[in-house]
Each structure stands twice: as structure tokens, then as C-alpha cells.
Amino acid sequence: MEPSRKAFRIKRKLKWDDRGVASTVGTIMALMVVMTFFSMIVNQYVPVWMKDAESAHMNEVYGQFGTLKGSVDLQVLSCVIMLQNNEPCMRSSGFTPIEIGIDGVPIFSAPTVGELSAREDRGKFSVNFSYQHEVKGTNQTFYVKQNSSGNIVLNVANRYFVRQWLTYEGGAIIRSQQEGEVVKGEPSFMVTKKGDYVEIWIYLMDLYGDGSVGGIGTQGVHHNLIGASYDVYENVNSDVTIVHWTQNGKAWYDFFNETLSRAYDVTEEDYENNSPPEWEWYKTGQPGSEQEKATNPYFVVMRSQYDDYSIVEVTIESDDVDIGRLTLVSSYFDVIIGETSSRI
Question: How far apart are CA 141 and CA 131, in angstroms?
């Protein structure tokens, strides 16, 4: 028999080998350079680019809302001209494109989405007054109460630029954000003082249709005029009261106060030099429950804030300065947002 053989295992000494160090360090450095580059893009370039893009988008849609207002005003004007000529008001259709959101930077930033909506129960107006009219040789008093409602709102969820809302209601364009709001496109409300009397023009706008569309890209607002009325009242024998329920109360309060102050030549010094109750101008409360009021012998403008909406009340006095003529125009529009709205 062959003698048994023992298996011998050779133990090798572990030795440090630095031949792979250079490639490992090189790979790590390359990754660090790439990560630094990506970090610079994400933290520096993308915010600046998106802020400029969102700002430019808000300016663009502000112009598009201006086009919407101009188109609607022309539809109403053409109808009023026909009514003044004792001809029936023809229906007319209009369409205005609105870009509701914008694309982001691929990979680095998501798109900025927006929502365009129409609500026929928002932005309610009420106009009240009385006038005298001769019937069978006798002057009789008639009372007028005219209502309207409806608005169109674009809400853009800006992440880098200031978040803003654009609202079209009562013929006005309102630009708002958390810090404040302002009427950018004035409605057709005018008061002109002529000696010892004033003339008033009030345009009311009913927007029928509920619906909304969200996302990015361009959507459209269909605004179809379905009717209008044009009335002129010569012998107004009462105050004219306007009540407005709105989510943009501060903007409307400032607009009515400034418009009437210019018409009656009322200045801040007038409030300082006269004593209540005929002259008073104050603001009380905290945000969310504010009250503002401007009162004088010619008009009263008051705003009361309730949670997420305001009531703005305007009274044009007829005691010291007569209301010689009041022109009241009411128009009615069928509004469709994208393809989702429908008139009830």
C-alpha cells in the first residue's frame, strides 16, 4: 500500500495593494463633481429660472384677463348701442384663451399647475334705489332692486414666485395675494358731479355657469352674451345703495372709496378738519375680522370682514347733492370653462 499523504495548505500573507486606490479615488471625485454640479443646478439655477418663469406667466395671464374683460365690454357695448336705437340685442359669442399653468424644468422641477374656475353664486351684487315717474298725471314712486352674481378665478400654485389669484367679477379684474389685493382693471362704475347734481353709471354682469379645469397649458373661457337691459332713471328720489358680497372686499372697498372721493373732491384733510358723525374714516379689528368705513355728507363706504369673505356696502347720498340721472345696464352671459362647465 502507498503511504498516506497529508494535505498541506499554504497560508499566504495578506499584503496591502495600492494599485486600485487611484481609480477608486478618481471615481469618488468624479461623483462629487457630478453631485456638486447637480446641487448647483437644483439650488441655484432652477429656483431663479422657475421664479422668472412664474413671474412672466402671471404677467401673461394678467394680459389675457385684460383681453377677456375687453372682449366682454365690447359685447355689452354693441348690445347697448342696439338697445339705444330701439333694436333687439343680438346674442354674441366670445372666446378667450387663458394659460393656466407652465411646464417645469425636466428632471429638476415639476410643472407649476393652476386652476381656472367659474362660479355663478360668487361675487353677488345688489343695487337698490327709488325714482318718481308720472302715471296718469300723478307722480308715483317706484322701487328698483337689481341683482347680479358670478365670477371667474385663476388660482396658480406658484412655488418660487408669490402665489397669486386673478379674479374677474362685476366687470373688474382683481389681482390678489396674501399680502394684499387691488383692482387692476376697473369696472364700468362712474360718478360725475355736474354742479349741484351727479350722474351715475352702474353696469351689472351676471355670469351663468359652474365648472373648473386644472393643470398646465392653455384652456379657454367661452363667454356668450344671451341678453342685456339698458335703463335710464331721471328722477331718483332716494339714496343709491350697492351691496357686494365678495372674497376681495379690500380691493372693492378701496376702489369705491377712491372713485367716489375723486367724484366729490373729498380728501383726507376733509376728514381731519370735520368732526363725526358727518365725517368719519376708520379701520378697526385684526385680519380676518376687519372693519373699514368712510362716511361724509356725500357717500358712505363700509367693509365688514367675515372669515373668508367680505360685505362691501356703498351708499350714495341724495340729500346734499341730488342724483340727477342713473344709468343701469345689466348683462347676462353664459360662461363655459374649458369643456367642463355647464349652465344650470
Answer: 6
Which amino acid appears at position 54 of this protein? Answer: E
d(CA 72, CA 123): 17
Q: How many helices (H) and strands (E) are present in the chain, helices listed first?
A: 4, 18
- Which residue, among 344, 333, 337, 336, has the nearest Cα to 89 in the 3D structure? 333
Backbone angles phi, psi at 298, to 5 degrees: -105, -35
User: Looking at the DSSP assignment, which residues form a beta bridge with residue 301?
Assistant: 294, 314
H-assigned helices in 226-286 = 249-264, 268-273
**For residues 201 and 203, what is the distance between their CA atoms, to the nearest angstrom?**
7
Cell numbers that stand for 325 in this block = 340721472
| Torsion angle in degrees (nearest 10) through CA of 218, 223, 224, 227 | 180
pTM: 0.84
Cβ–Cβ under 8 Å, residues 65 and 114: no
CA distance 200 to 315: 12
SS3 at position 213: strand
The per-residue pLDDT string of the chain (344 residues; one tens digit each, 9 = 90 and over) reads: 455 555 555 556 555 555 556 677 677 777 777 777 667 666 666 666 778 888 888 999 999 999 999 999 999 999 999 988 888 888 889 999 999 988 776 666 678 889 999 999 999 999 999 998 878 778 888 999 999 999 999 999 888 888 899 999 999 999 998 888 999 999 999 999 988 899 999 999 999 999 999 888 889 899 999 999 999 998 899 999 999 999 999 999 999 999 999 999 998 888 887 777 789 888 888 766 789 999 999 999 999 988 888 999 999 999 889 998 999 999 999 999 976 544 44
- N residues, the chain: 344
Distance CA 199, CA 326 (A): 6
Q: How far apart are CA 76 and CA 78, in angstroms?
A: 6
Closest to 338 (Cα-Cα) out of 99, 160, 106: 99
Rg (CA), the chain: 32
